[in-house]
Amino acid sequence: MAARSGPPWHSAAFRGLWCASLASAGAQGMERTTTAWLVVAAGGGPLAVGLALAARSLPSLLLGLPAGTLADRADRRRQLLVVAGAAALVMAAVGGILQARAISPWQVTGIAFAAGCLQVFDTPARQALVLDTVAAEAAQRALALNALAVRLAVALGAVAAGALIVGVGLPRCYLAVAAAYCASAALLLSLRVPRHARVAGPPPGFGRGLREAARLLVADPAVRTLSVVGITCEILAFSYGSALPIIAHDVLRAGAEGLGTLNAAAAIGGTIAVLLVSLIPDRVRREALLGSVFVLYGLSLLALSAARSLALAAAVLVVTGLCAGAFDLLQQTLLQLAVPPDRRGRAVGIWVLGVGSAPAGNIEMGLLGSALGAPGALAINGTLTVLAAAALLAQVP
Q: Which of 102, 191, 256, 288 is the most buried (most CB within 10 A)?
């Protein structure tokens, strides 16, 4: 059966997936804030925070293409169910361990790596499944609405984590994360995805599919250009998250609740970005918008490096999050629309592979933060981001 025509909300399958994305993204927002604060609470400095975030992103580099290939071959709903169930078990186990004993910053790195391994298999299946639930003419709006759910829930999860850490402690906060993943799994169980012709004939073997994904990255000019732009932005701009725990703890003296506020501000900015992008007429070139957002991203990092109050830092992070959200959505949309429907999972896998370059940025931000302080590290990366964006805009049509 073909995906139902009309706006995305006309599809019951899309509505169910959207609600499941809310629960899953809320869990991710809580987990990221909790794990980042756990590093600081365990005595880690800027480098330890950078290494933990690098460990979270490393699976994207190692497993991005295989995860995207699997999403083109497997039942995508079932893949999301397995990820949600495994995540709930891992987070509950972490909460139990923390209740029993203290852990070191380097052990937190292992927790972040496990969370990253789970996330890398979630993203390609979820993004491709969004397009499976709607008609072709509703594709861009469906992606924007799903991104809206994710950004909104991440913001709420970050705020909730900051309050829970102070109110009930780190161990129970991880148990709350596990509960949110369970809610996502329950919603996915009731999801009924329409059968429509994503592929003509049986899907290729896994090895062949993986080779095709690699070939797509090398041979397709649009995919290749988008990947280069994404990797550059990932290393220079998205690494700002490594500085936030240190900014909250050492510069703003705002504690765990302050870190939750900063993360929530960035997520709120991402939510605004999704709303704005979804309102842009189809005639407006997304490629030009992507380059402009890249420049603004760097400028916002320069402003963040100079902020010395929680209110000002949060206000700047709304702009930073807006840039991050717009960049992500525009890049993912352009990648998926540049390939045939049967390769959408692999297109998102290529995007996830680009996210895998984040460890280089996280470690670089951690080293700079250790040597110059978090504000100095942000100032350097903000400057490099603006210069890189300007160079890319000058070279790429």
A: 256
